[in-house]
Design goal:
This protein is α/β, with parallel strands linked by helices. The chain is about 45% helix and about 15% strand.
Length: about 220
């Protein structure tokens, strides 16, 4: 199910209650999320496996790729459509070799264009920059400047995703600067209505697509 990386990229919060996780993940997918990343830094391996399996079944229902954060073995075990790696989470080249050409491979590049260029050379399908804004999930994360998105769009041929403290208020500036997708955790899953929040994020990209067609 390899496809263009664009739009709302929903990243799951750490929720140990699997039924509750499925409820909010389905709301995000029904609201228009184009990708779902399973990210859980706290769960034991057995819970990660169970949750990833259920999320993958849900993603197939909505025909949306499931991308697993960090754990190559988990991505392979549940036959996920993709894997996302940070700079210290393993070798991109080794991951590409094991994933094969059909699965999605994403890479965190923080505020460093050189990491993105290397990731593209190795075979990443997209790169993620950030944190662009203060983030409650990663309060100590390095901050990336908005100009990095413009630079990346000039120098890369693969999609660029923005992450870190993204809200409905600040996402339009990132999209205008060239972000193909926005990865969102808190502003999506902490919303009073996850489905409504997902639709609002998705609508930001619809506006851009319409403007591009008429430009």
């Amino acid at each position: 199910m390899k496809r263009a990386i664009s739009g709302l990229y929903a990243v799951t919060p750490d929720i140990a209650d699997t039924p509750a996780l499925i409820v909010v993940a389905e709301a995000a997918l029904a609201g228009g999320a184009r990708l779902l990343q399973y990210r859980n830094k706290q769960a034991p391996a057995t819970l990660r496996l169970a949750q990833a399996r259920e999320l993958h079944a849900l993603c197939r229902k909505y025909r949306v790729p499931l991308v697993v954060n960090d754990y190559l073995d988990l991505a392979l075990a549940v036959d996920a459509e993709g894997l996302h790696l940070g700079a210290e989470d393993g070798s991109l080249a080794a991951a590409r070799a094991q994933l094969g050409p059909a699965r999605i491979l994403g890479a965190s590049c923080y505020d460093r264009i050189e990491l993105a260029l290397e990731a593209e050379r190795i075979g990443a399908d997209y790169v993620a920059f950030g944190s662009f804004f203060p983030s409650s999930v990663k309060p100590g994360a390095v901050r990336a400047p908005l100009a990095l998105l413009r630079n990346a769009k000039r120098r890369l041929s693969i999609p660029v995703v923005a992450i870190g403290g993204i809200t409905l208020d600040n996402a339009p500036g990132l999209i205008a600067a060239g972000a193909d997708g926005v990865a969102v955790i808190s502003a999506l899953f902490d919303a009073d209505d996850v489905g409504v929040a997902a639709r609002r994020f998705s609508a930001l990209f619809t506006v851009r697509e319409l403007a591009t067609r008429h430009s």
